[in-house]
Amino acid sequence: MKKMLVVYYSWSNGNTKRIAEQLTNGTGADITRIETTEPYSGSHEDVVEQGKREVEAGFMPQINPISVNLADYDVIAIGTPTWWYTMAPAVLTFLTTNDFTGKTVIPFMTNGGWPGHVIKDMEENCKGAAFAHEMQIQFDSKGKDHLETSEEVITEWIGQINTDINK
């Protein structure tokens, strides 16, 4: 049996957190959250504009150390919301400041109908990892928390991961 960790970043509606918790509950994995040292503040529109500027500049905010040691895990699921067609800047920081050599990474992302190139970008910035079970989960296009991807698809994805980690 492989030891699994779910790492995620979630900011506004908690959609990525919701999926991360569902994955954790379905697999028995440990879970930890990526948090920026300086939290985003202001209105939703302010943060959206800041996020756009950060993505365009390739900015990587400082993040707090996570509460676990990645070396203790065989499989690491990493979740991010889509920010301007790619991963949230905090996830970019996490991926580029950790060593995933010999790990299996399960990249997953939430989006409002514009998945962009998140998974590809995650894989390009996660050096040394093998990848499995990539997943795009869509919520409504208004930036709310209504799930568009069916629960059955998510349950099946979690089941496949569970089967793989328990081999």
Describe the protein's architecture and organization.
With 167 residues, this protein is of the alpha/beta class. It contains 5 helices and 7 strands. Strands 1, 2, 3, 4, 5, 6 and 7 form a 7-stranded mixed β-sheet that branches. Strand 5, helix 4 and strand 6 form a beta-alpha-beta unit. Helix 1 packs across helix 5. It is globular. It starts with a strand and ends with a helix. 34% of the residues are buried.
Order of helices and strands: EHEHEEHEHEEH
Terminal-residue CA separation: 6 Å
Q: What coarse outline follows from CA principal-axis ratios?
A: globular
Question: How many strand segments?
Answer: 7
**What's the story with the biggest beta sheet?**
7 strands, mixed
The radius of gyration is 15 Å
Structural class: alpha/beta
Low-confidence stretches at least 5 residues in length (pLDDT < 50)? none
The oligomeric state is single chain
Q: What fraction strand?
A: 15-25%
* Residue-averaged pLDDT: 94
Number of helices: 5
> Approximately how much helix is present in the residues?
25-40%
Protein name: NAD(P)H-dependent oxidoreductase
Organism: Dorea hominis
Pfam family, one: Flavodoxin_4
Domain Flavodoxin-like: 5-162
Give a brief description.
By secondary structure, this protein is an alpha/beta fold. Helices cover 34% and strands 20% of the residues.
Secondary structure topology:
Blueprint: E1 4-8, H1 15-27, E2 30-33, H2 44-57, E3 75-83, E4 86-87, H3 89-96, E5 104-111, H4 118-124, E6 130-131, E7 135-138, H5 151-165
Parallel strand pairs: 1-2, 1-3, 3-5, 5-6, 5-7
Antiparallel strand pairs: 3-4
Helix pairs in contact: 1-5
